[in-house]
Amino acid sequence: MTKQLHLQATSSANGDFAPGWYVVAASNKVETKPKPVLLNGLPLVTFRDSGGQSRALLDRCAHRNAPLSAGRVVSGNIRCHYHGWEFDGAGTCKAVPGLCAEPDHPARRVPSFACRDSQGWLWVYSEADTDPDSEPYEIPFADQAGYLTIRERLEMPGPLDAVAENALDVPHTAFVHAGLFRKNKDRRPIEVVIRALNGGVEAQFIGEERPKGLAGRILAPQGGEVFHWDRFLLPCIAQVEYRLSDRSHIVTTAALTPRTPTVTDLFATVAVKVPLPNAILRTVFKPVAMWILRQDIEILRSQTEQVSRFGAEEFASTEIDVLGLRIKKLLREAASGKTSSAQEERRIKMLV
Hints:
This protein has two domains: 15-125, Rieske Iron-sulfur Protein, CATH 2.102.10; 148-351, Naphthalene 1,2-dioxygenase Alpha Subunit, Chain A, domain 1. It has five helices and 19 strands. It has helices at residues 2-11, 160-167, 214-219, 278-310, 324-335, and strands at residues 21-26, 35-39, 42-48, 54-58, 72-74, 77-79, 86-87, 93-95, 112-113, 115-118, 121-125, 148-157, 189-197, 200-209, 225-233, 237-243, 249-260, 263-273, 345-351. The chain has an eight-stranded antiparallel sheet, covered by helices on one side. A hairpin with a 6-residue loop joins strand 6 (77-79) and strand 7. The protein is elongated, with a radius of gyration of 22 Å.
């Protein structure tokens, strides 16, 4: 009981943390060699057992607190480098060298975390010793025929809510990404419909023209109207979807994993279909996408440093800050065990 309470206290120490499935690594980076990861400040160790199954345990030996990630995998069990205790993927103690009695004992267990390999990522459920009643989020269009799929991991400065808002924030693109999407002088009025989803929120942008910047010209050289949705889904999914024609479609899905209170790992899956060969698209699209993300990293770093300098966040908002406050509310409610039943739909006007 003491150990479980300690885990809960550690997991809730970094703000409004919603329980659920989080990506901690690319699947192809998880091997039999133990790999340490941080999930909301909680040290975990991931590895593959002898059957190739991904596993995640608390990165702390039950014996003398040595990090299990410094050990190695032996016959599918992780062996501590200090005294050689071994634990299976469920956290059960399987060997204590020199002990004549059976090694398995409740006091010698290491907390374990449910794992899934799905769509190129390793997902870990955030609550220890739990059999989840859900599966990880299914990323739309990933590896679907006709789509180029790009996966990338980035370290983003800032807490999860700030990184999610940045990913789904339209007004900043005219300044931070000026020329890549749009420019301030080119703004035109559009309508935005904000809808409550089951465990999330969505903004649909109606009447938006294809962005005049470089990114828009790559995705839809023929121009035309953009069909554009931004979504946040608990506990950690930020998603941007553009349909620019019958032949142009892009869905960027970011799984956001808080590593510490001021660092969030972004695991991006981009599924893109445009009237260009994939070889050319990969050559052109990925460098432009990384250029945009580097700009976001710099503005988030500045924002995070300012919050630290002043000791706390202090926000003034308007209605065109479409999703930021709603994301904070969803995370706060989920962290406290509440679920919102409001079926909100609101329409606003803004210049884009």
